[in-house]
Amino acid sequence: MRPRFRQSMNWLHTxxxxxxxxxxxxxxxxxxxxxxxxxxxxxxKPEITVVNSNDNPDGNTNAYQVLEIAEQQLNQLASDSxxxxxxxxxxxxxxxxxxxxxxxxxxxxxTKQWRQKSINPENGSAVAIRETGGGHTLYRMHYNLHYIPKxxxxxxxxxAGMFMLIxxxxxVVIHKKIFFEFFTFRPQKGMRAWLDIxxxxxxxxxxxxxxITYSGLILxxxxxxxxxxxxxxxxxxxxxxxxxxxxHSEIKENKAxxxxxxxxxxxxVFDDASTRYKNxxxxxxxxxxxxxxxxxxxxxxxxxxxxxxxxxVEYRIKDHQVEIEISRGKAGSAARVYExxxxxxxxxxxxxxxxxxxxxxxxxxxxxxxxxxxxxxxKRQKNACKDNKSSRFNIITLIEKINVAVIIxxxxxxxxxxxxxxxxxxxxVNRADWEIHCFFISWLACLCFCLFRQSExxxxxxxxxxxxxxALLPVVNLITTDHDIISSIQKDDWIMAGxxxxxxxxxxxxxxxxxxxxxxxxxxxxxxxxxxxxxxxxITSEERPS
Amino acid sequence: MSxxxxxxxxxLLGFTLxxxxxxxxxxxxxxxxxxxxxxxxxxxRMLGYGLIIVSVLVAINAWGVVLGLVYCFGTAMLVTLLLxxxxxxxxxxxxxxxxxxxxx
Amino acid sequence: MLYPFREFYAYLHFxxxxxxxxxxxxIKTHTATIGVTCRVFIALFGGFLLANLxxxxxTYWFVDDKIDGIVTGIMAxxxxxxxxxxxxxxxxxxxxxxxxxxxxxxxxxxxxxTLELAVKx
Lengths: 546, 104, 121
Prior knowledge:
By secondary structure, chain A is α+β, with helices and mostly antiparallel strands. Chain A has helices at residues 3-34, 37-44, 59-77, 134-144, 150-174, 191-203, 206-219, 221-224, 226-233, 237-247, 266-276, 333-346, 352-387, 395-407, 409-423, 431-451, 455-480, 485-490, 494-543; strands at 84-87, 96-102, 113-120, 125-128, 250-256, 282-288, 296-301, 304-305, 308-309, 313-318, 321-330. The longest helix of chain A is centred in the C-terminal third of the chain and has 50 residues, at 494-543. Chain A starts with a helix and ends with a helix. Chain B is mainly α. Chain B is elongated and about 45 Å long. By secondary structure, chain C is mostly helical. Chain C has helices at residues 6-29, 31-61, 66-90, 94-120. In chain C, helix 2 (31-61) runs parallel beside helix 4. The model of chain C has no long low-confidence stretch (mean pLDDT 87). Classes of the chains: A alpha+beta, B mainly alpha, C mainly alpha. The interface between A and C is medium-sized, with 31 and 24 residues.
């Protein structure tokens, strides 16, 4: 390839990356956390009682009991709600619960929202769950960017994704020895080491990076490229709805079954579905459009075939006969391709091993962006050193400080979000909103802190704060709830224990980073003192003869 | 579970051989500067690529095309990350392979 | 009396010359910056326009299934966009980049226009 082409691509890589680096870092970190959405959710709702499926091998009798309790509770709490869901223990969410859509009511100042309660199968009581954003809000942040209107969030995220794609492609183009330096990481070599890390972090998970970026763009394509839909279907929401309807149409199979219409109830539906699909565990039963003509039961399974969730089954009364409706996948090939990318992006099918791999890949992506930013700053500093421009205030130093605040501040902010879940008063009004406010307040605090520190100290201090806060999370959990690591393990509550242990792991990683910085600095100091001593001895030896 | 472990072993071996087919990493491991003979390079490369292809086939066989590829790419990421760390900090751990080569 | 606004004209003339001078010196000293800014604009907006046009053009390829065409078009357009941005920054000058993207836009628009006419007939 011509050298000038490579040079211009290098320029594009540098500046396209720089332009959206912090936004991309935010997207990657919160998106990676999103892979553990359900696990985070469970940790943020400590009231939930975990059910172990191996406790009672005869699952169905227990399930009937739960169904009874759930129905009773729903009748009491949500008699006017159009949608009911009853949750059964699943692999990632081993607990029972009910959720319903609460309609807006101006008299009692209720807003339209989803409500949920956990059910304790041992004593049959429904437990209220604290109001929390949960893992879902954290996960949603990576594409709606929270405070700004949704549509701007989508567009900004897509733009960042586009820059990322450009960065990836140009990165591959400018990296001359992509296969020869596949494993190369030379730690003790200053700037070269940073470049090596940047390469390793981008090349090793390159398939993941390409997939996640491209599929991310595709997931938001109906927002960003809506003009293309306009041309065929016309502008406006109503016209676009026509497009979605056709695009998402599914192949459905209808079958009349022997169940009598008057017998149709939660219990009979559950019974029928669990005998019909013996090897698939039911995770949800929904009663949709209650009281209307279209009332039907929805059954979801906790079962994946390949990367696709097992298709749900609907029970409804049609022509005085009970009919089941099974979805056989999307009708159009375009929709199927879209679905493939969607599943790969969300990784819902992943077991615990793949889930961690997804998570690590995402964090490596975040690391790639962070090291890219470091390289940008280091290069400019080096140039500034060459030009001998040492003004007291310069823009590079400012960017360096903000960079620290973003890179280490974001994990701290996430820790702050978790802390707020435990420490804010349970009865607080708008508690879920305040959790998110806490997230951004702690991030802002980090920024203020970094602006008033020298950047070298800022790195160390921020890493120390991060290490401490992650180490404190299990402690706070222990104090504010009755879930400590040991008792969680004893109770087989592996999600709670796993979360606490992961927090300790992150704390350990931050501690190692602090130690590495210290070691590096001592190394530098000893080199400097050597140099000074050598200079002194040189001076004295020069002085002696005279 | 066993398929995952098989994946890890196959890919680890494959990528280790690939990395050792490069003179730079081979010198790192044996701690002497040396150029590899062409025949060794080819042997390592063929074996390395062969093992990787086998692991892809095994994964597709075990999980189907899409999920198998996801497993394969994910495990490859993990394994290569591990390898680059080993090569950077503890290259002697891999000296087993040159020793075995000598025995043969 | 003939030129009641003589002073005004003089002022205007001076002002005009002054502006031209300032602009010229600005262009001379900041050629690189202006070039880069132009390229950024061409890449962002021209690229978006061209990517959209290409996507729409692709939808015409699929006569039977419009949905497939739309989705394929949009999926391809992201790659097209990447290519356009790389082209814009790889060419020798901003002018060439503008010319390239502009011509491509006109050509695709022309094809779409004729196709649309043909379809309507």
